[in-house]
Amino acid sequence: MTQTAEKSFEEMKPGVKAPAKETLLTPRFYTTDFDKMAKMNLSPNEEELRAILEEFRADYNRHHFVRDEEFDQAWEEKVDPETKRLFVEFLERSCTAEFSGFLLYKELGRRLREKNPILAECFTLMSRDEARHAGFLNKSMSDFNLALDLGFLTKQRKYTFFQPKFIFYATYLSEKIGYWRYITIYRHLEKHPENRFYPLFRLFGGWCQDENRHGDFFDALMRSQPQVLRGPQARLWCRFFLVAVFGTMYLNDQQRAGFYEALGLDAKEYNKYVIRRTNDTAGRVFPEILNVDHPAFYGSLDVCVENNAKLAEIEKSNAPKFSKFLRKLPLYASNGWQFLRLYFMQPINADARLGTVR
């Protein structure tokens, strides 16, 4: 391993990776108002929610997550150090995000069991899926002689409180963007198997269907709570979460473009495709979506990418902390301004496009 790669992984103890430092771009752990969620009336869309519950019970992927003989190789030696570094970062971010979903869904299933059994079972079965995903990702990390201590992560991470409607917006988009990310990589590698440097990618075709079903659940759940999707306030919040989720993914991926290059993908084009498809998908439930084809949309995001690269360089410097802070301020302000531009960019009325009224 190169010196650069060695320094990339701080270990809590041999073979156990220290969790990545929490930033605005790292996956977060969430909690919510469980009592408010338990009291929700599902009757406006209960039939669809029951149908989705039956799909969860069927557990179509129960035999999907199997490590076959292709995994039993010395992957530490087969993957070059820089690709390994980027891949382990991808695995850690993905594992942390899946584990975050597991913790939230498991607690919702436990807290809602008596007062809202339909929701409780849905969340419990989704936590089953997320646990499988997190476990499989963590096991994949161990093929490179590293793993996360998920028990430590549970206690060490700060939990962000979100009202139920914010949980709905955020997790719906997270699940749907996860679907488009996984299926896009899977389809690309079907056409270019020479770029599949690790067998995990073979499983993304079935894996992404879990993400899709979870997203469909939150779609149906939001439709059962009309106030979440109706009115000017709902429109503003939907737009906010679209900007936040798309911006976070874009900035994370552009910082790690080498990972996508290793797969034979152009990171920017991959991001644009995933954002466009997720945005279109969100238009089936959100009252408005972003104009991601506006010429200024990616221009603003690219300014933030450049700013973040400069922020990283400042952080690495040996300058005093206060000096670093002063040098970072204009870059933070610039990022804030670019996100404001994205937020106030004229959105697309999804209701008008679909011919619905809310």
> Which spans have pLDDT < 50 for at least 5 consecutive residues?
1-7
Determine the fraction of residues in helical runs and give it as a percent range: 55-70%
Let me know the largest β-sheet.
2 strands, antiparallel
> Count of DSSP E strands?
6
Run of helices and strands: HEEEHHHHHHEHHHHHEHHEH
**Helix-and-strand structural type:** mainly alpha
Number of helices: 15
Shape: globular
How would you summarize what this structure contains?
This protein has 15 helices and six strands. By secondary structure, it is mostly helical.
Which features does this protein show?
single chain, 358 residues, mainly alpha, two-stranded parallel ribbon, 15 helices, 6 strands, disordered N terminus
